[in-house]
Design goal:
With about 800 residues, the chain is of the alpha/beta class. Helix content is about 50%, strand content about 10%. The longest helix has 25 residues, at about 410-435.
C-alpha cells in the first residue's frame, strides 16, 4: 500500500501534550474540532478603560475582515479556563497581549505562548503609566518590542501593519542531563527558601538558579534557554507584603508559563496562603511552615527523575541553526556553570596566585569573578586523595540572631573572643564532617580507618543533624549559641562562655581531626559568600567583627595544623567594600595578604568571549576573527568590541550581559550575526539592567540617593561640580547629603572624572575616592556619567 494512505500525524503543537502540570501526566483534553484564528487577544479586565480599547481594536479588525478573536470569545462557561486558553493559543496564528499593567495571568499566558512557539506581540497604552517603574524592573519583554497605542483605531492600524508576525527563532538546545533543574530564587533568603534549597540538594538533583540578589533582571532570551535545558523548573514565590515581591512573582509567572508549555515539571511554591491568579492557582503548592516543603517536593522530584531517565535514552536535537543560535556564553553567575567552567575559565595572574595559596583574601567587586576562582580551585583539587578541600559558603543573614540577641549586648573584647571561638568550633566540626566523606579512601588503609572511626565517633557528639546541609547547620549552631547565652544571662556567664560556645569537648574533636589530617599532604579551606546579603557600602562594625574573627580562627587553625606538619591554605573571598571596611577596623593591619581582582586589560575580555565561542561552536581562531564572525565590525565608526567594553564597569559579568543582549536582539530579529541596528536596542536593554542593578544596590543603604539616579534623565554627559550639586538638590537631597551622595555615585562607578587624557572611574584608581575627587577639580577635571547608564537615561554624547 502506498505511504499516501497513511494518516498524517497532527503537528505537535495542536496535539494534546504528553505531560501537563495540571494533569500531572498526559493531557486528557480532546483537541478535535478546534476553530483556528489569525490572532488571539489577551487583556486584563482592569482597568476597564484599557480593556474596552483593546476589545474595540479587535472588533475593528473583525469588521475589516481580519480573523481576530479575544479571550472573551472562548467557550469557557463550565470549562477549565486555562485548558480552553491553552487550546485556543495552539490554534491561533499570533497572540496579542496587553501589558499596560503588570498582570500575573497575562504574563503566565505570554510565557505559555512563547513556550508553544507562537508569535507574541506585547501592546501597551503609553498614556497609562501606573506600572511603568515595575515594568522597568521586570524587563523581560524589553527585547520583544512593544506596540504602543492610545486609542483603538491606532492599535488596530499598527497591528494590521505587523500581523501575521513571525515567532521567535527556535532554540536548538539539548536537555542538561547533568544539571536538570532550574530554580527561580526569591529575593529574600527566608527559612522557606533555605529549606527548599536544602531539600533539592538532598535529592541529588543538581540545579541552576536565578538569584535576584546577584542579578536583579532576567532576560527573556536567558529564560528561554534555561527553561529549554531543564526537565524541572522550581519557582519560590514571595509573600506579596515582602519587598520586590511584585517583580519577582511576575517573573515567575512568565517563566513558569513558558515551562508548562514545554511540558516541564513545574513547581510553584508559595509561603503561606495568599490568593493566586486563576490561570495557575491549581498548581501552586502552599506551605505553612518550611518543614512541609520536603513532602511537597516529593512527587515533582520523582517525576523529574523519571523524565531524566527517559531523556538520557533519547538522541539529541538535530535542528539546523544559524551561528548566533549555537553560541552559549554560559551563565553570568558562576554557581550555575560549575561543570562547564573548566572549559572556558581564563587563567589570570590573580587566579594563579590564588591557586598557589599566596594569600588569605581574594577581593573584588560583585561580578569580577571571585566565585569562578572559588569553584575553579575547588574542582581542581577536589578529587586528589592527598588533599582535603573544605569549601564553605556561609551567608551573612545567618548571623542575624547572633548579632541581635548576643553580640550587641557584649563588650568589644568579649564579642571578639566569642566569635573567634565560634568560628574555630565551626571550622573543626566542618573538617570532621568532610573527613567522614573521605570513607572511600579510609576504608582501604587500616591505620587511616582507625583515625576515621575516631573522628566519626567524636563528631556524633557535636553534629547538629546529619540530614541538614551547611546553611542549616550554621543556622542551628548560631541559634543554639544565641539561646544558650541568652538563657544564661550575659552578666553571669563569665568563665562558662567558652563551654557554652561548644556543644561538646572541643579538645577531643581537635585532636581527632588533626590526627587524621596528618595523612594528608595539604588542607585547603575555601570560604565564599560570607558577605552575601550585606548591603554594599553598608556593612556594620558587627559584620566586620564576624569577618575579622573568621580570619583569626583560620590563622589559629593554620598554626595548629602546621605544628603537626600539615600544609594549610585558606582563601576567603570578599567584596571590595567589605575589605575596605575591614582594613579600617583592623588594629593590626597587614596580617593577611589580599589578591585584588581588577580587570583593566581589554585583551582579557576578548579571551573571555573567545573561549566561550570556541566551547559552544565548531569555530576556533584568534578572538578578533571570531568576533568578526558574529558581529559587525563598527558602529558609529567605533570598533564594536571596544564599544561594548567601554560600556562595562570593567567586570566580566557586565561584558557577558551586554554580549548576551546583543545576541538576543539579533536572534529575535532573525539575523545570523549582530548587525549595527541591533546594537542600540541591545544597549538600551543592557543599560536598563545596569541602572536598575545599581539603584538596588545603593537603595540598601541610601534609598534617597538611589532615587536620585533617575534625576539624571536627559542630563548632560559631563557636569561641573555646581551642575552636579544642583541636579542632586533638585532630586530632593538635602545640602548635607550631597557630598556623600557624590562620593557614593563615584564609588559605584555611576560617575567618573573626565580629564583631557580620558575618563577615570573608581575601578581605575582602586576605589580611592579621595584621589578621584581631586582629579575632578577644575579647570581640567569634570564629572562624567558612565557610558553604561547613558542609554537608559537618554543621555546623548
Amino acid at each position: 500500500m502506498s505511504d499516501v494512505s497513511k494518516p498524517i500525524p497532527p503537528e505537535p503543537i495542536i496535539s494534546p501534550p504528553s505531560y501537563c502540570q495540571y494533569a500531572a501526566g498526559p493531557c486528557p483534553e480532546a483537541f478535535d474540532g478546534r476553530a483556528s484564528s489569525g490572532a488571539l487577544f489577551f487583556f486584563s479586565s482592569d482597568p476597564p478603560e484599557i480593556a474596552r480599547t483593546v476589545k474595540a481594536a479587535a472588533t475593528s479588525g473583525q469588521k475589516r475582515g481580519a480573523d481576530w478573536k479575544t479571550w472573551r470569545d472562548l467557550p469557557i462557561a463550565g470549562q477549565t479556563i486555562f485548558c480552553e486558553i491553552c487550546k485556543a493559543m495552539r490554534f491561533s496564528g499570533s497572540l496579542v497581549a496587553d501589558v499596560s499593567t503588570l498582570n500575573f495571568n497575562l504574563l503566565f499566558e505570554i510565557g505559555f505562548g512563547i513556550g508553544v512557539g507562537k508569535p507574541v506581540i506585547p501592546i501597551r497604552d503609553v498614556s497609562f503609566t501606573q506600572d511603568k517603574r515595575l515594568f522597568d524592573g521586570f524587563g523581560m519583554l524589553d527585547t520583544l518590542g512593544y506596540v504602543d497605542f492610545v486609542n483603538s483605531e491606532e492599535l488596530a492600524a499598527r497591528l494590521f501593519e505587523i500581523l501575521p508576525a513571525p515567532p521567535l527563532s527556535r532554540l536548538n538546545v539539548d536537555i542538561n542531563v547533568e544539571v536538570p533543574l532550574y530554580v527561580l530564587k526569591s529575593p529574600h533568603d527566608t527559612d522557606g527558601q533555605i529549606q527548599l534549597l536544602a531539600t533539592i540538594k538532598k535529592s541529588a538533583l543538581r540545579f541552576r538558579a536565578f538569584d535576584p540578589q546577584e542579578i536583579p533582571r532576567l532576560s527573556l532570551h536567558d529564560a528561554r534557554i534555561q527553561v529549554a535545558q531543564s526537565i524541572g523548573v522550581v519557582a519560590h514565590l514571595s509573600h506579596p507584603s515582602r519587598d520586590s515581591a511584585l517583580i519577582h512573582n511576575a517573573r515567575c509567572a512568565l517563566v513558569c508559563g513558558m515551562a508548562m508549555a514545554q511540558q516541564k515539571v513545574v513547581v510553584i511554591l508559595q509561603e503561606t496562603h495568599v490568593p493566586q491568579p486563576i490561570d495557575y492557582r491549581d498548581v501552586v503548592l502552599t506551605y505553612g511552615t518550611p518543614d512541609n516543603i520536603p513532602l511537597l517536593l516529593d512527587g515533582p522530584v520523582r517525576e523529574v527523575v523519571t523524565q531524566l531517565q527517559s531523556t538520557r535514552e533519547r538522541p539529541g536535537s538535530t535542528t539546523s541553526q544559524n551561528l548566533l543560535e549555537t553560541i552559549d556564553l554560559g551563565d553570568v553567575a558562576a554557581e550555575n556553570e560549575i561543570t562547564e567552567l573548566d572549559s572556558y575559565f581564563v587563567q589570570t595572574g590573580q587566579a594563579n596566585l590564588a591557586r598557589q595559596g599566596r594569600a588569605r583574601l581574594v577581593v573584588g567587586r560583585k561580578g569580577t569573578g571571585k566565585t569562578a576562582i572559588f569553584y575553579r580551585i575547588r574542582e581542581e583539587l577536589f578529587h586528589r586523595r592527598t588533599h582535603l578541600v573544605l569549601d564553605m559558603k556561609p551567608e551573612g543573614h545567618q548571623f542575624k540572631e547572633l548579632r541581635e540577641t548576643v553580640l550587641s549586648k557584649m563588650g568589644e573584647g568579649v564579642q571578639e573572643h566569642t566569635m573567634v571561638a565560634f568560628w574555630n568550633y565551626i571550622l573543626l566540626a566542618e573538617l570532621a564532617r568532610k573527613i567522614i566523606d573521605d570513607w572511600p579512601h579510609a576504608r582501604h588503609d587500616p591505620d587511616r580507618l582507625a583515625g576515621y572511626e575516631r573522628v566519626e565517633e567524636v563528631y556524633k557528639r557535636h553534629n547538629p543533624g546529619f540530614e541538614a546541609d551547611f546553611s542549616q547547620r550554621l543556622l542551628l549552631e548560631a541559634n543554639r549559641l544565641a539561646q544558650a547565652l541568652g538563657d544564661a544571662g550575659l552578666d553571669a556567664i563569665g568563665p562558662q562562655l567558652t563551654e557554652l560556645i561548644f556543644s561538646g569537648d572541643v579538645r577531643e574533636l581537635n585532636e581527632a581531626v588533626s590526627d587524621y589530617l596528618t595523612e594528608k599532604e595539604t588542607v585547603w579551606l575555601l570560604i565564599d559568600n560570607l558577605d552575601k546579603g550585606w548591603p554594599i557600602r553598608g556593612s556594620t562594625p558587627m559584620d566586620i567583627l564576624i569577618v575579622r574573627s573568621l580570619l583569626e580562627a583560620t590563622r589559629k587553625l593554620q598554626r595548629e595544623l602546621e605544628e603537626r606538619g600539615i600544609d594549610f591554605h585558606c582563601l576567603v573571598f570578599l567584596r571590595t567594600d567589605i575589605y575596605e571596611h575591614l582594613v579600617v577596623l583592623t588594629p593590626d593591619k597587614g596580617k593577611d595578604t589580599a589578591i585584588r581582582l581588577d580587570w583593566e586589560d581589554s585583551a582579557l575580555f576578548e579571551e573571555i568571549i573567545r573561549r566561550r565561542i570556541v566551547t559552544s561552536t565548531e569555530l576556533d581562531g584568534p578572538a578578533r576573527e571570531l568576533w568578526a564572525r558574529i558581529c559587525v565590525s563598527h558602529v558609529q565608526a567605533e570598533d564594536t568590541f571596544n564599544y561594548v567594553v567601554e560600556r562595562t564597569l570593567m567586570r566580566p559579568r557586565d561584558l557577558l550581559l551586554f554580549v548576551r543582549k546583543l545576541i538576543e536582539v539579533a536572534i529575535n530579529r532573525g539575523h545570523d550575526r549582530i548587525e549595527a541596528d541591533d546594537i542600540p536596542q541591545a544597549e538600551r536593554a543592557y543599560s536598563e539592567d545596569m541602572l536598575l542593578t545599581t539603584a538596588y544596590e545603593i537603595a540598601d543603604t541610601h534609598p534617597r540617593c538611589a532615587e536620585a539616579l533617575y534625576a539624571f534623565q536627559g542630563a548632560a554627559e559631563r557636569l561641573g561640580h555646581s551642575d552636579l550639586v544642583g541636579l542632586l538638590l533638585g532630586a530632593g537631597l538635602q545640602n548635607a547629603e550631597v557630598e556623600e551622595a557624590i562620593n557614593l555615585l563615584l564609588w559605584f562607578g555611576f560617575l567618573g572624572v573626565s580629564r583631557p587624557d580620558g575618563e577615570l572611574y573608581s575601578h581605575s584608581v582602586q576605589f580611592n575616592i579621595s584621589r578621584l575627587r581631586s582629579l575632578a577639580e577644575p579647570p581640567e577635571g569634570r564629572f562624567v556619567i558612565h557610558p553604561a547608564f547613558r542609554a537608559a537615561l537618554g543621555i546623548a554624547a
